[in-house]
Amino acid sequence: MAMNDNLNVVVFVGGVGGAKLALGLQAVVPPENLTVVVNTGDDFWHYGLRICPDIDTVLYTLSGRVNREFGWGVADDSTVTLDALKTLDENPWFLLGDKDIATHLVRTSRLRAGESLTGIVRRLAQAMGIEATILPMTDAEVPTMVTTEEHGTLEFQEYFVKHRWQPTVTELTYQNMENAEMTEAVATALSNADMVLIGPSNPLLSIAPILAVPGMREALMARDIPRVAVTPIVEGDALKGPAAKLMRELGYEVSPQAVADFYGDVITGFVSDVRDTALKPHGYDVVSFDTIMKSDADKSRLAGEILRWVTKRKEKTL
Fold first, then answer.
1. What residues contact 213, with CB distance under 8 A and at least 6 apart?
2. Backbone conformation region of residue 283, classed left if phi is above 0, alpha if psi is from -120 to 50, else beta
């Protein structure tokens, strides 16, 4: 059942955790009031196809197509094409299911025809029956580059998939970011937002690239509205992926406090997990909920709790 019918909600996401919260929000926010801004630093070219892993995870999750075992990819997909590549002396280290390839073919052909990534994502979402708005953080190509002790500088997917995020990371950079622009669609969504949420995504790999888009941080902080982040760290570890390992390697304490402090004045509120000790806020309010989302009911429950808390805080300031 939808709630907060008159509130426009924007959520920044990347990865499986962010997609889970987006699904929860989709259950409790009218689709015309929900905008999901997605990290594109993970995007790359592979076998001539433009692959957008975070965008596709959100598309597949919100359309009900996602492989629930993995949290990404398409359910009941086959690997006929991948298996055929192996017979041609190829080593296809990035998993591309046959149904998944259809998405990449459509996106690549439309990009080559001159259509923007924003426009293509809109078309894909409509084709998949998604009514909420899904926006790439920028239309420019801004690949996240990972500098490692063992292999030098790698493209993100080489680090994350090919090397299974095991190399020791010394630096993260976002190639071509100085030439990127915030899209008109993202700017409009932020100017109309009644609240901005930051999903329980990897702060360094998924959210930092979004905030690094020129003009994004300024547009976000120019709005006197609730800006609330959800912790991806519970009991000293990440629920999924390399967030904890990466934070240690780059000199951060692995804790909700470190995540909240990393966002700093970007946020006005922070959602910690009930399993962790209370945070010491520095300019932001704090609340604790059960942030582990194992079922769809968990996702909608957490989304509802966050929205009710944010709404109460918003009403108190009026």
1. 137, 138, 142, 177, 180, 181, 182
2. left
- Whole-number Å distance between alpha carbons of 251 and 92: 34
C-beta of residue 270 within 8 angstroms of C-beta of residue 229? yes
Task: Give the span between the Cα atoms of 110 and 87, in whole angstroms.
Answer: 30
* Beta carbons within 8 Å of 139's beta carbon, 6+ residues apart: 116, 117, 118, 181, 183
What element of type H or E holds 303?
helix 296-317
Segment 165-191, tens digit of pLDDT = 999 999 999 999 999 999 999 999 999
**3-class secondary structure, 290:** coil
SS3 category, 230: strand
Write the pLDDT tens digit of every residue in 14-26: 999 999 999 999 9
SS3 66: strand
Nearest to 107 by CA among 155, 36, 44, 31: 44
Q: Give the dihedral of Cα atoms 280, 285, 290, 292; nearest 10 deg.
A: -90
**Complete DSSP assignment for 129-194:** T--SEEEESBSS---EEEEETTTEEEEHHIIIIITTT-SPEEEEEETTGGG--B-HHHHHHHHH-S
Q: What is the mean pLDDT of residues 57-72?
A: 95
The tokens of 236 are what? 């000293």
